[in-house]
Amino acid sequence: NFVISAQSDFFGETYRIATKTVNVSLSSAPLSLRILVNDESDYHDARLGETLRYRLIYRNNSSVNFQDMTIRAALIGDMYDFGALQSQGSFNSITNKITWNTANVSDLKMIGPGEERSVEFTIKLKDQFPIARLGDKNYLVKVQSEIESPIVPPGVSAAKTISLANSEVKLRGVL
Length: 175
Prior knowledge:
The protein is flat and about 70 Å long. It has strands at 2-10, 13-22, 31-37, 51-60, 66-67, 70-76, 80-87, 90-92, 97-100, 110-111, 116-125, 140-149, 161-170. The protein has no helices and 13 strands. By secondary structure, it is an all-beta fold.
């Protein structure tokens, strides 16, 4: 419980204007998302020209069926070779985002309580660092992903259910 109180001082006396108690309960996310890179949750030291396999694993931790889910993954970094991307999802080359939905992955139509599934993509890293300035170093690639469903578990006051996951892979330097 959080107790919030507003008070003011008038002529040396303190007066309470309002008090509100808010009950907050924490629980696990009803729909969770995590990212594995080459089957590891903490992949690091990727090499130039290496192909990375990303697997986005989603799980229903609630007691309701989630339906009509959409997964989005934003690929961030100068080292991705977008021409070598392979995925069941649709790729937007302007925003560098992959989107999976029921139109291209039938498993996203519905997931029952306790079930876990995944979508994946592979992408090659560039063969050379795009060094333009003396300070260009410490290259990395990122994936920021989200899953959403219009279904909301009972007792949750939200318009939809959303979960987020991020991944960051550092690239090994070359002397």
